[in-house]
Amino acid sequence: MDGPSSTGSEGEGRPRLPIVGSGNSSAARVLDDWFVVCSSDELDALGAKPLSTTLYGVPIVVFRGATGEVGALLDRCPHRNVPLSDGAVEGALLRCGYHGWAFDAEGVCREIPTLCGDPEGKARVVPRFAACEQDGVVWVYATPDVEPVREPYVFRWVRDSRYHSGRETFEVDGTIHAVAENALDVPHTAFLHKGLFRKSGAGNRIEVVVRRWHDRAEAEYIGEPRPPGVVGRLLAPQGGVVEHFDRFVLPSITEVEYRLGETSHICTVSALTPITDTRTRLTAVISFRLPVPSFMVTPVLGPLARAIFKQDAAVLERQVANIERFGGESFVSTEVDALGPQILRLLRNAERGDRGAPGERGEPGVEPAHEHRFFMEV
């Protein structure tokens, strides 16, 4: 049998494969910001047991001390590297389950059983993540051992007594970009969620205005009739034209807002947490103010949200699997993909530390850095 030719490279002259993995990924790591790691109820339900989680794949242990303060530490005892989440909370300290080393919420070692000397020491300090509890959830800052440069997002409608709010938590395959785009994407709703939300072939031509600041992007849908399905009937039983805004706010917040006049308003805010680069926790808060008693609405919105999410989760799981199968992303977009490209741009900029100056962010009165308009059918 002849060996490889000495005059050409191995494989020369063979047909090239039609598909070559790009290695592209929309995963982005925004480390100078806050992410929801659990609800207050989840943490309280554990009692003396700490909560184990991950943020961008980094193991973190979250616990509540006797004073009510929430602490978040790297989930590794510096002594023999056993997970601190295997231990227990005693008073204000988190005690390792192996040798009993105990740490406060700052990560400082306060007790070492059997040691006669001082338990404190630089090498015995566990990296600490800033933690904040507000609006019924626990936020953790993604970079350890630093003072946060900004405050966590505020669920503003939760704090408004005119609104009734409920919360759902899910986990789903997908990057922050993929999950955020899915939450804010209009075109897929007529197909994937047909009957629950929209229907295909309705033929309603509406105008879309996309705006981007340095810290957020939004799409305003002008002239949109009441969506068919359960949500539309709740929002506007008599029909009409709705105000519809979709927004993405760094580092990982999505807002879907529907309003009809002064009496009907539904907003779903989702805080997305990167468990890993391709696995996301979604904390969805649904707030509404409607001319219908809340006890009639809540039994409908909860199951509806879960049904929609189940469909989204299934397609996102298939998307992740197929991207891995082909060795990377290879996306093609059109203008009706209103926010996906804007979200990716914001994430990439934020990953590099570019969040814009105060006068460049999406605050009242600040002009967007980018705006464009187009028409689409819904």
From TrEMBL:
The keyword Signal does not apply. Keywords: 2Fe-2S, Iron, Iron-sulfur, Metal-binding, Methyltransferase, Oxidoreductase, Transferase. Residues 1-21, 350-370 are annotated as: Disordered. InterPro entries: Cholesterol_7-desaturase (IPR050584), Rieske_2Fe-2S (IPR017941), Rieske_2Fe-2S_sf (IPR036922), VanA_C_cat (IPR044043). It is an enzyme of class 1 (oxidoreductase). Residues 34-140 form the Rieske domain. This is Methylxanthine N1-demethylase NdmA. Its EC number is 1.14.13.178. GO terms for molecular function: 2 iron, 2 sulfur cluster binding; metal ion binding; methyltransferase activity; oxidoreductase activity. PROSITE patterns: RIESKE (PS51296). It comes from the Bacteria. GO terms for biological process: methylation.
